[in-house]
Design brief:
The chain has about 300 residues and is an alpha/beta fold. Helices cover about 60% and strands about 10% of the residues.
Amino acid sequence: MSKTFVEVAESVGVDEKTVRNVFKDYVALKEREYQFETPKWLGIDEIHIIRKPRLVLTNVERRTIYDIKPNRNKETVIQRLSEISDRTYIEYVTMDMWKPYKDAVNTVLPHAKVVVDKFHVVRMANQALDNVRKSLKTQMSQKERRTLMRERFILLKRKHDLNERELFLLETWLDNLPALKEAYELKEEFYWIWDTPDPDEGLLRYSQWRHSCMSSNYKDAYKDLVRAVDNWQEEIFNYFDKRLTNAYTESINSIIRQVERMGRGYSFDALRAKILFNEKLHKKRKPRFNSSAFNKAMLYDTILSIGLK
C-alpha cells in the first residue's frame, strides 16, 4: 500500500501487471471487510487530482480519512451521505462556502449543524487587504515601492505575531500611507472577531466591523467578504459552538497529493485505495512496545529485589 507498483514488481520479481491485478483483488477484499467509523464531526472538502476536483470526506474528531469520491457534485455528496446507515450520529459538518455541499447536507443530514471553515473566511480579509496594497503600489514611484519591499508578508501577518523589526516597518508604512492604514485596520479588526470564545460577542464584533467597513473608503475592497458573511452568517458563526475548522481535512489533501506524486499514472480507484486502506496514512498508531526499556526496568527491579533480600 505504501510502495509503487513498479517498486513491488522489482523487489518481488514479477511483472508490474501482476502486481496491479493482485492489488485490485486486495482492494476488493478490503472494500467488503473494512468498516469506517461514522464521524461525529464530518469534514467535507475537495482536491484537484488527476485533472478533476474530487470529494474528500474526513472524520474531524478522530482525525482519520472517511472516503474519497470521483467528483464533488451535489448528487454524489447526497448519495454518499445517504449510504451512511447511522448518519443521525453526525452532529457537525465542516466545509468551505460551496453551496452544493450545504444543500446536500441539509437534504440528508437536516439535524446536523454546518460549520464554514473560519480560515476560508479570514483568508478573504487578507485578499481584500492585498488588493488594496497592489492598487496603492501602482500609484507609487519606483523609490517608494522599494521602501515597501516584502511588505505583503508583514501586512498579512497578525500584528501580535510581528517581531520588533517587522513592527517598526509596519508602523512606518502605515504612518506614511493613511489609505493603507485604513485597509490594514479593517483586516485586523475582522480577525479580532474570532479572538473571543463567546458567540454573542463574536456577532457583536462582526456587526461593529461591518458598520465600520461600510463607512470606510475601502468598502468596495471588502464587499465580497461582507457578502459572504451575510449569506453564510449562521454557518460561519456555528464555529463558536466547538471552534471546529477543516484544518485536518486540508492536511489529508496534502497527503493525497504526495501519494499522487509518488505514483504517476495511478487511476483514481488505485489512488483512492492507497489512501483509504493504508492505515499509516490516516490512523494514529499507538506507540510501539519498547522492549529495550521494559527489559532494563525488569533488570532494575530484579537487582533491587536481590539487594533487599
